[in-house]
Design brief:
The complex is a heterodimer of chains A (182) and B (456). Chain A is α+β, with helices and mostly antiparallel strands and 182 residues long. Chain A has helices at residues 2-26, 158-163, 169-178, and strands spanning 36-42, 45-51, 58-61, 66-69, 73-79, 85-92, 107-110, 119-125, 129-139, 144-155. In chain A, the strands form two sheets. A five-stranded antiparallel sheet of chain A has the order 1-2-3-5-8, with no helix packed on it. In chain A, strands 4-10-9-6-7 form a five-stranded mixed sheet. Chain A is elongated and about 65 Å long. The termini of chain A are far apart. Chain B has 456 residues and is of the alpha+beta class. Among the domains of chain B are: 52-190, no CATH class; 230-382, TATA-Binding Protein. The longest helix of chain B is centred in the N-terminal third of the chain and has 26 residues, at 2-27. The radius of gyration of chain B is 25 Å and the shape is globular. The N and C termini of chain B lie far apart (88 Å). The chains are: A alpha+beta (182), B alpha+beta (456). The A-B interface holds A 60-62, 69-75, 77-79, 107, 109-110, 112, 115-117, 119-123, 125, 158, 161, 167-171, 173-174, 177-178, 181 and B 57-60, 104-106, 142-146, 175, 178-179, 182, 184, 187-188, 192, 194, 199-201, 204, 213, 215-218, 405-408, 410-412, 414-415.
Chain lengths: 182, 456
């Protein structure tokens, strides 16, 4: 009896030790993402892009709802109607882990109003861990008032990078970012 | 007797140790110092500096704006590999590979301002490298990097034809650069670039341009430059003395040269009408040699070697210009070939505006003409270009930031100059703009549209 109690406690400890990272990450659930990935044909190529629920904004970079990267910066590129005002907020779980209930955006980017080429770019800074990106768009003419797009960019830690480093280091790092190469 | 031998042996050992220590302290190690002049794999020299070397680490591209040493190390490594291992028969057209595919791979890209032959690119006259392929960019694929293989691609000017080459050797210097740029700490303060070919501006810009991501939060910071002609502030004697240092190398006997000072401020130095060197107060030096009678047809690499040899030896070309210049264009006019060079400062290229071009009588910062087997003419700016001193109240600490991003620039162009939206822009770049021959020079956007340059 005593043995089984001890083994249960040990098992619980092992589980906690092994999966603490996942438990912690799950606090910042990616289920609140409200975007879809669509495949569009451009120049005889199928291109993936993230689109808002109303299809008003299309993000051409990144192209996944959950993107992994080792880089500390990423260019968010997209397309929408002329005259749209865009604000991008980035929330980082690791930076705000002391008080998850009072999450503050680690960075807020107010973009220039979208111009005649109907496209926008914004370089955002990524902290290690999960970065929740909230893109808010407003266009009075098209009656869009502070609509939101939510997607995630996970900046992998340096430890992870080291673990995939050798052999063929660059390829492995790159594949982690972009998916296997053909 | 025996004691003396021990003493002498110890003394010799100490002297040898001292010598070894001096060598290590001065040179670091001896691996890079070739005292005997012997070369490793194949003979090659760096003849052409690329306009830029780019490192693609993932979603962003970074420019190596580092020292000429870093450029030389990389170019030497890849040139050495090509010279020792490539035959033109190894170069195959890769029909499946597009330029966009290349820019989606991790690697190092060498960007030149003109198409060059393989021999000129690697600085070797080896017959085996003779080919008709004109290369504008070289991409070293670092995605399949391992101990025994290097894939690289040669890209033509219009980026439509891509040649692939595989060599069974590694490029350690390139790998080290990749590793450095893969470290987020190393790239945190660097300007990230977005290739226009893989961006949402693709349909608006005809050729690929590496667009710097300039934002309010992380603006591009640059040194404000100052352009001046220090010679014009000198007394007559000082001016002649200074100019003699520039021009004496053109004459067989400098002591016998004639000096003719004109009313417009120009000064002509000549020697029996064989060589004439002219200084113009607007800030140029021009020479011509009148004895180019030796009829000889040089190959492109021989011509380039002659021109670069002249530039290196010419004391009239300011040192800072030699260090920052890169070959931009070669124009053929009958028997004459004009080699045109542009200038870059800390990785950012410099452009002369049309009024400055007219004032200087130059299209590019340095132009050298070769005919038969002799350099016969040349003209260049001797204006001093240096970081502006921070004493001025308006320049703050001598640096400034670029105020706008490329989205705004492309939008402005399409609003003001491309009303129908059918034409694409030729180029969108962030460059130093020389709009005066005396004063400040800032970094800002320039756009080429239908062959003309715009400063939106």
């Amino acid at each position: 009896m005593k043995f089984s109690k001890v083994s249960m406690v040990v098992f619980a400890f092992v589980c906690f030790w092994m999966f603490s990272g996942s438990l912690y990450a799950s606090e910042f659930s990616t289920t609140d993402s409200n975007v879809k990935v669509e495949v569009v044909e451009k120049d005889d190529k199928n291109i993936e892009m993230i689109v808002s629920e109303d299809k008003y904004v299309r993000i051409t970079q990144p192209t996944k709802v959950n993107t992994s990267t080792f880089e500390s910066k990423m260019n968010i590129a997209g397309e929408t109607s002329q005259g749209t005002e865009i604000v991008i907020e980035v929330y980082n779980i690791q930076a705000d882990k002391d008080d998850i209930s009072l999450l503050k955006a680690s960075k807020v980017y107010e973009l220039k109003t979208v111009g005649i080429t109907k496209s926008f770019n914004q370089l955002i800074e990524l902290l290690e861990g999960e970065n929740k990106v909230v893109l808010t768009y407003t266009n009075e003419k098209d009656k869009k008032d502070k609509e939101e797009m939510i997607f995630y960019i996970i900046r992998e830690s340096e430890k992870t990078k080291e673990s995939v480093k050798k052999p063929d280091s660059v390829l492995k790092v790159f594949e982690t970012i972009k998916g296997p190469m053909s | 007797m025996r004691r003396n031998i021990v003493k002498i042996t110890m003394l010799v050992m100490l002297v040898a140790l001292c010598m070894w220590q001096i060598v290590i302290l001065w040179l670091g190690d001896m691996s890079s110092h070739n005292f005997l002049g012997k070369r490793g794999a194949g003979n090659h020299v760096i003849l052409v500096q690329p306009k830029a070397i780019w490192v693609n680490v993932g979603k962003l591209v970074y420019k190596i704006d580092g020292s000429r040493n870093e450029y030389s190390m990389l170019i030497n490594e890849i040139s050495g590999l090509v010279v020792s291992g490539v035959k033109t028969s190894d170069i195959e057209k890769d029909a499946d590979m597009t330029y966009e595919d290349l820019l989606s791979m991790p690697g190092i890209l060498y960007e030149y301002d003109l198409e060059l032959g393989l021999q000129e690119l690697v600085g070797s006259d080896a017959e085996i490298l003779k080919s008709d392929i004109g290369v504008n960019q070289v991409f070293i694929d670092m995605s399949r990097y391992n101990d025994h293989m290097t894939n690289f691609y040669l890209v033509t000017d219009d980026t439509r034809i891509i040649y692939a080459v595989t060599l069974y050797e590694r490029l350690e210097g390139h790998q080290k650069i990749m590793e450095r740029f893969n470290n987020p700490d190393a790239t945190r303060n660097l300007v990230g670039y977005q290739p226009s070919t893989t961006s949402n501006k693709k349909q608006y810009i005809r050729r690929n341009n590496f667009l710097p991501l300039n934002t309010k939060e992380a603006p591009i910071e640059y040194d404000i430059l100052q352009v001046s002609n220090p010679i014009e502030n000198m007394s007559r004697e000082e001016k002649i003395e200074e100019l003699e240092q520039y021009v004496n190398s053109f004459f067989a006997n400098p002591l016998l040269k004639e000096i003719d000072e004109r009313q417009d401020g120009s000064i002509i130095f000549s020697e029996n009408m064989r060589a004439i060197v002219k200084y113009e107060p607007r800030g140029t030096l021009e020479f011509s040699i009148t004895s180019a009678n030796e009829a000889a047809k040089l190959t492109p690499i021989e011509r380039l070697t002659k021109v670069m040899g002249f530039v290196e030896a010419c004391t009239g070309i300011p040192r800072f210009l030699k260090e920052g210049m890169y070959l931009s264009e070669i124009v053929n006019q009958g028997e004459e070939y004009i080699y045109k060079f542009d200038y870059k400062y800390k990785g950012f290229t410099m452009q002369l505006t049309n009024p400055v071009k007219e004032e200087l009588g130059l299209d590019h910062i340095l132009e050298i003409t070769i005919k038969n087997n002799q350099v016969i003419k040349g003209k260049w700016s001797i204006l001093r270009i240096e970081p502006k001193e921070s004493t001025d109240a308006d320049s703050g600490d001598g640096t400034d930031t670029v105020p706008r991003g490329f989205d705004e620039i492309v939008d402005t162009m399409y609003e003001l100059y491309v009303p129908d939206g059918y034409e694409t822009l030729d180029a969108v770049q962030c460059q130093y703009i020389m709009s005066t021959t005396e004063g400040k020079m800032n970094l800002d956007w320039v756009v080429q549209y239908l062959g003309d340059w715009y400063y939106p």
